[in-house]
Sequence to fold (263 residues):
Amino acid sequence: MKVKTALNLLRKNASETKTPERLPRHVAIIMDGNGRWAKKHKMSVSKGHRQGTETLREIIRHTDDLGIEALSLYAFSTENWNRSEDEVAALMQLILDFFASEIDELDAKNVRILILGDKGRLPEKQRETLLEAERRTQNNTGLRLNIAINYGGRAELVKAAQEIAVLVRNGTLRAESITEETLADHLYTRGQPDVDLLIRTSGEMRLSNFLLYQNAYAEFVFPETLWPDFTVAEYDKALGAYGKRDRRFGGRTADDETEMEAP
Ligand code: IPE
Ligand code: IPE
Ligand code: MG
Fold:
């Protein structure tokens, strides 16, 4: 009897954590709420950020286990330089610690790392670490892990416009031939699918300059949970919600079409 109960429990858990049927190809996450988490626990803000990296590890692992194609994480925005020197220093240190502890496992799992953002303004150590992570994993063919550091969506679009302008100026491209694809090809995420699902934790409901072009048709989910408390189960819930969304892209779903055609 006892064995049977245990088995039933196992089955129940398995069905609850069942992989959603329609998974996004590209998930983007704005990892927000570290500061509020730290305040709630009467800890320093850097402890909050450190706790946030624990969530980060689990979410990356789970995304990889699910076989999702691309995951983009907002780690540091161009606007985050406005924070105190101490907080910026703590975040910069976390970047080094994160790669030091994770790079072997990520590489072994065939994860391909890409940094979104301008590495030019980062301290040399951080810049070298990020370049090395990209270089080391560039031929990997598994999960595409994009980490946005010193990233701004508008800055990314300006960079693309400048690169395209140079091609027009030197005669490689005609202005009339510029398409949406041309622009997409000059973004950090070139070659990757658009974002299908955007998750922002902590109850805030804004993009904060994240992947402005790529999020054009993304489905948004805004869990209330602060990032350090965000769990794999809540992530699955967001993926499940995505699976139920009716993505129309301006058109009509098949059901709608039949109803409309009825006399
Ligand atoms: C997000 O947490 C992490 C970064 C911006 C690096 P916050 O630090 O913004 O957390 P809150 O919004 O203050 O709670
Ligand atoms: C966005 O969060 C940036 C990251 C999560 C890295 P912020 O907390 O900086 O955004 P705002 O200031 O609330 O819009
Ligand atoms: Mg915030």
Q: What stands out?
A: Residues 30-32, 74-77, 80, 204, 206, 208 surround IPE (ligand 2) (CB under 6 Å). The longest strand covers residues 70-77. Strands lie at 26-30, 70-77, 112-116, 144-151, 197-200, 219-221.
